[in-house]
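Hi Q.,

Before the meeting this afternoon, I wanted you to have the pyridoxal-5'-phosphate prediction in hand. No need to reply - just skim if you have a minute. The sequence and ligand are here:
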Amino acid sequence: MSTNPRARAWIELDPGALLENYDRLARGAGRARMIPMVKANAYGLGVADAVRRLEPRDPMAFGVATVEEGIGLRELGVRRPVIVFSPTPPGSVRDAVARDLRLCIGSLEAARRVADAAAAFDRTAGVHVEVDTGMGRSGVDWRDAGPWLRTFTGLLGPRVRWEGCFTHLHSADGERESVELQWTRFQEALGSSVPPGEVVRHVLNSSGVLRTPEYAADAVRPGIFLYGGSAGPDLPPPRPVLALRARVVHVKDALEGSTSGYGATYRAGTRERWATLAIGYGDGLPRALGNRGHALVRGVRVPVVGRVSMDVSVVNITGVDGVGVGDVATLVGRDGGEEITIEDVAAVADTISYEVMTGLSARLPRVWSDVDGA
Ligand SMILES: *Cc1c(COP(=O)(O)O)cnc(C)c1O
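Predicted structure with the ligand bound:
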C-alpha cells in the first residue's frame, strides 16, 4: 500500500460523530446500560479504532457475533465483558470460555457444552439466555421458556454464571404492535424464573432505543445508529460518521459513440466528459450503482456511467468545470452543498445501509480525522 492512505480511495471517519451518536442512544436508554454492537469490524468502520474511542464511555459490555471477533477484542486488550451473540458452533466453545467471552445460549446442549468447557478449564463462564419471541433464528421458543429455564437453572452448577437474558426484535423499525407483542412474549417467558436485578435483561437495538425506549429494560444493544446509519426514516438522523472518497485518476473527452465499461452498457451521446474514479466493487462500492448511482465531484452530483468495475468506476462530468486528475470524488458524504447518504447508496443498490457498510472492503484505508487530520 502507498504510505499515503488518501492516495486512491479511502473511508474518512469522524470520532466526534461516533461519540455523539453514542451519547444520544445512551440518553434515550435512560437508566439502561449500553452494550455497543461492534460485530463485523464495527459495521465495517474498523473495530480497533471504534472500541478505543468507545472505551472511555464505560459501556457495560461489547457485543460481537463470533468467537473470533471476541478473541480479537481480547487481543486488543479489552478487559470488560464481551458477549458473542450468534449461536456458537460447538468447536468454538472452549476457545470462548478460555478467553472469558460470554456466550448466548438457546439450547440445553449449548448450556452443557459451556459447563463442560468451564469444568475443563476450571473457571467460571458467564452466559446470556436468548428467548426467541419471533425472530426464529436462534434462542429458546418463548412458549417453552418456563420449563426450559427451570431445567437450565438446574444444570448451571458452580461454574456457569447466568448473567443475562434477551430477545431480539424483528421489526423494531416497523409497527409498534409487533414490538409490544415481542415484549409481552419476553415477559411471559421470563415469568418468575428470572430473578430481577441478578440477570441483566436486554431487548432493544438502535431503532428500539429511539422508538420504544420504554422497553429498554436493563441494557440496550445499539449498532447501526452509532456508526451513522439511520435507525428509520421517521427518526432524527444520526450524525454521519463515515465518508467514502476516491481520487479522479483519468479524465477524457468522450466522443459521440464512446462506450463505458464492461458490456459497453453506456454510450456517449453528443460530446461528453468522463472522469475515472479509483474505486470499484473490489472496494465494496456496490456494483448495482452502475448506470444508476452518483458521485459528488467539485460539489456537483454526477452520474455513474457504465458498469462499476472491480477497481474503478466512470462518472459523467460533462458541464462540471475544472475537474482534473487528483481531484477527490465523494461516493458517500458531503461535498459543498451536496450530500450522498449511506441510505441513498443502499436504496440504489436495493439493499440496506448495514450491507453497504459491512461490504466496504479491507482495501480501503480507514482514516480517522483526529489521527490523520482528514
Ligand atoms: C446486530 C445486532 C444488534 C444491533 O442492531 P442495530 O439495528 O444495528 O442497532 C442488536 N442485537 C443483536 C442480537 C444483533 O445481532
